[in-house]
């Protein structure tokens, strides 16, 4: 199948072909925009949804449409071998494609240095949760979106983030997690671990009377367990038991679905999603005080002593959040150790205007730059971030 392109220039420079439901335009070979190096312009769509194609064509200068992932892959590989070629800025694939074909297309992109920076998105409109999970884990696109449910501004913002992030990854080629762990067992990391053990041990000794009073207050107000223990994913997706003082009513996790519409990190039901609710009704009065002063985090000092966490790192995520961040790009945030405090806390804690992409970007930035000196700087900044402005 030949590509279909939407150039906004004189029709005398193009061949006009009929594709059934709309006229599309095909660039002649001599109309390639490249001058010795590939140029990135417009979109590539894999599928036949006329509404989606028209929606993309209305806002992008160029666009090619292919019936299958195999057709798209062949065209991309052929174009990347040419000295003068136009490559898409992003690719949107219909979810009706076979999942393993989507995976093969993704692998072809990642194996080519000229294609590695092109985001691969899947339109997951109307997919069931089970189908979404299959595409995430097997197809492994960069993002799953609901194209019909997004505004042009939201879509363009997502594309800008993915393009910028993947361009940086393509340049520095982030190492695999196991490779990262193997090459970073140097003196600096050993010193960081020794520092964690020393500080956490001293802190637990000094703060034990306060922790006993907090435990008593939690029990008197709402009964039930004093500690909240849950599975979290830390460095290298290692799953461990995560400790906090309980700040919510008993069985608060069972009420999560009822509050989904208030999620501060809403992403239209698709793609990686964190969960946080402003003025969460599940939080108790004692819990609100503990959260606003970050005293609920004190039991994580035990996690530090056990080696599950560090004093500074990226926050360990609930498993339902971590499973949405398994692509090579998003997995970069898991190269850093899990931490009690981190770069995100001192930059954006307590703000309402945090997007999913921005939080992931901050986490990845720390993973790429983490060092003992950076940790000391973050710890020095942490006290001023302890008192939140928003009840979240």
Strand order of the largest sheet: 5-4-7-8-9
Radius of gyration: 24 Å
Order of SSEs: EEEEHEHEEHEHEHHHEEHHEEHEHHH
Number of helical segments with 4 or more residues: 13
Q: For the terminal residues, how far apart are their CA atoms? A: 52 Å
Share in β-strands: 5-15%
What spatial form do the alpha-carbon principal axes imply? elongated
Largest sheet: 5 strands, parallel
- Total beta strand runs: 14
Mean pLDDT: 75
**Secondary-structure content class:** alpha/beta
> Which spans of ≥5 residues are poorly predicted at pLDDT below 50?
1-35, 171-185, 267-272
The helicity comes to 40-55%
Can you offer a commentary on this structure?
The chain is of the alpha/beta class and 392 residues long. Helices cover 41% and strands 14% of the residues. The chain contains 13 helices and 14 strands. Strand 1 and strand 2 form a beta hairpin. Helix 7 runs antiparallel to helix 8 and helix 7 packs antiparallel against helix 9.
Jot down its keywords.
single chain, elongated, 14 strands, 392 residues, disordered N terminus, 13 helices, five-stranded parallel sheet, three-stranded antiparallel sheet, alpha/beta, 41% helix
Summed up:
By secondary structure, the chain is an alpha/beta fold.
Helix-strand blueprint:
Blueprint: E1 14-18, E2 23-27, E3 39-40, E4 43-46, H1 50-57, E5 63-66, H2 69-80, E6 86-87, E7 90-94, H3 99-110, E8 120-123, H4 129-139, E9 143-145, H5 152-172, H6 177-183, H7 187-222, E10 227-233, E11 239-245, H8 285-293, H9 300-306, E12 310-312, E13 317-318, H10 319-322, E14 339-341, H11 343-348, H12 356-369, H13 372-385
Parallel strand pairs: 3-6, 4-5, 4-7, 7-8, 8-9, 12-14
Antiparallel strand pairs: 1-2, 10-11, 10-13
Helix pairs in contact: 2-3, 3-4, 7-8, 7-9
């Amino acid at each position: 199948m030949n590509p279909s392109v939407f150039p906004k220039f004189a029709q005398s420079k193009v061949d006009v072909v009929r594709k059934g439901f709309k006229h599309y335009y095909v660039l002649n070979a001599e109309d390639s925009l490249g001058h010795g190096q590939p140029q990135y312009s417009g979109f590539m769509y894999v599928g036949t949804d006329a509404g989606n194609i028209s929606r993309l064509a209305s806002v992008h200068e160029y666009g090619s449409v292919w019936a299958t992932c195999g057709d798209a892959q062949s065209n991309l590989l052929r174009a990347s071998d040419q000295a003068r070629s136009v490559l898409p800025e992003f690719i949107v694939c219909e979810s009706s494609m076979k999942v393993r074909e989507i995976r093969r297309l993704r692998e072809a992109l990642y194996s080519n240095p000229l294609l590695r920076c092109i985001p691969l998105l899947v339109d997951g409109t109307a997919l069931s949760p089970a189908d979404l999970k299959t595409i995430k884990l097997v197809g492994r696109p960069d993002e799953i979106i609901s194209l019909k449910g997004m505004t042009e501004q939201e879509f363009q913002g997502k594309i800008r983030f993915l393009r910028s992030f993947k361009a940086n990854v393509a340049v520095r080629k982030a190492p695999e997690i196991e490779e990262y762990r193997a090459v970073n067992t140097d003196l600096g990391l050993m010193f960081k671990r020794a520092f964690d053990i020393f500080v956490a041990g001293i802190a637990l000794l000094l703060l034990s009377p306060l922790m006993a009073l907090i435990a008593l207050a939690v029990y008197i107000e709402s009964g039930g367990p004093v500690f909240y223990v849950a599975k979290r994913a830390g460095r290298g997706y290692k799953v461990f038991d995560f400790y906090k003082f309980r700040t919510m009513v008993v069985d608060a996790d069972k009420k999560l679905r009822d509050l989904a519409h208030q999620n501060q990190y809403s992403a239209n039901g698709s793609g990686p999603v964190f969960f946080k609710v402003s003025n969460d009704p599940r939080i108790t009065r004692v819990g609100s005080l503990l959260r606003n002063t970050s005293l609920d985090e004190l039991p994580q000092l035990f996690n530090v002593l056990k080696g599950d966490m560090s004093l500074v790192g990226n926050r360990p995520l609930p498993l339902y959040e971590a499973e949405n961040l398994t692509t090579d790009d998003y997995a970069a945030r898991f190269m850093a150790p899990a931490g009690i405090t981190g770069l995100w806390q001192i930059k954006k804690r307590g703000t309402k205007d945090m997007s999913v992409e921005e939080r992931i970007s901050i986490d990845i930035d720390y993973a790429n730059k983490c060092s003992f000196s950076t940790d000391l700087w973050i710890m020095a900044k942490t006290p001023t971030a302890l008192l939140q402005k928003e009840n979240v």
